[in-house]
Design brief:
Elements lengths: L15 E5 L3 H13 L4 E7 L3 E4 L7 E4 L9 E2 L16 E2 L1 H4 L4 H4 L8 H8 L8 H9 L12 H14 L3 H8 L2 H11 L5 E3 L5 E3 L3 H5 L14 E5 L1 E6 L11 E8 L2 E6 L4
Parallel strand pairs: 1-2, 1-4, 4-5, 5-6
Antiparallel strand pairs: 2-3, 3-9, 7-8, 10-12, 11-12
Length: 271
């Protein structure tokens, strides 16, 4: 997969602005990227999939983390972003679904089933945490465990194949040892499904238990203590395919097919 990725991902010695999203997957991935790059990549933007916020105006390149930008903007993402195999796509995106030719119309159910965090860990050869709970947290982020527990063997095989492909076969043993409710409890215990938002003081805020998570993860985690200001308002929509027309590509900011027949996107009105 690395051979298919754009070169910018290896420019860890250069300064980039990271854009954090509104969940734990994006936050933990941003924290890890800051660690990998020794602070050369830092969070400077926040995107809640409706509006954009910025801490400081810079001229640095931007890297979106856990978001599928439609145009050629650098980003790590784990969603299906093409409707058809021949659909246009963001060539600056690092996304396993692009590299394995996954599209909503053709083979949606063979999609990459894990978090952006696991994607970042795999790309930069980051080992799993030493503790068993640390491993469980990694697979609980973005509900990456769910495909292992499906009643349909075909889908479980796809889940296992992707774990092998990403170099994390050690997680298979953990999944075999625990029932699915164990991972839902991990999510609840650490607030992994809690959203991130901007509070009245312009600071990022969340009920995610970063302090509790820090005990089990090998890199420094948490939200940046920076004030953010609104810089662009957009429109967010989601609907079943065919219910309404998706805006033209020049109006799209980000887009993901969150089910075979459902699309979520953010756009701007150019009229």
């Amino acid at each position: 997969m690395k051979k298919q990725c754009p070169d910018w991902a290896n420019e860890t010695n250069l300064e980039f602005d990271l854009m954090i999203g509104n969940d734990s997957d994006s936050a933990l991935s941003c924290n890890l990227l800051e660690d990998i790059t020794n602070g050369n990549w830092k969070v400077n933007y926040f995107y809640d999939f409706e509006n954009f916020y910025r801490h400081d105006k810079t001229n640095l390149p931007v890297v979106g983390v856990d978001m599928a930008f439609s145009k050629n903007v650098r980003c790590f993402d784990n969603h299906v972003t093409k409707l058809y195999p021949h659909s246009p796509y963001n060539k600056a995106m690092i996304n396993p679904n692009l590299f394995y030719d996954i599209s909503a119309d053709k083979n949606y159910y063979k999609k990459y089933p894990f978090s952006t965090l696991i994607l970042v860990m795999a790309y930069y050869d980051i080992p799993l945490p030493e503790s068993e709970i640390g491993k469980d947290i990694v697979i609980a982020v973005d509900s990456s465990f769910k495909g292992h527990y499906t009643s349909k063997k075909h889908f479980k095989d796809i889940h296992t194949e992707w774990l092998e492909r990403m170099g994390f076969i050690g997680l298979i043993d953990r999944l075999n040892m625990n029932p699915i409710d164990y991972y839902y409890n991990i999510q609840k215990q650490f607030g992994l499904n809690e959203p991130i938002h901007i509070n009245d003081d312009g600071l990022l805020s969340s009920r995610i238990d970063f302090e509790g998570l820090q005990t089990y993860l090998n890199w420094e985690i948490g939200l940046p203590e920076k004030k953010f200001k609104l810089i662009k308002e957009c429109q967010r929509e989601g609907h079943y395919l065919g219910k309404k027309q998706i805006p033209d590509r020049e109006k799209l900011i980000s887009l993901a097919y969150t089910a075979k027949d459902y699309v979520s996107y953010t756009h701007i009105d150019l009229d």
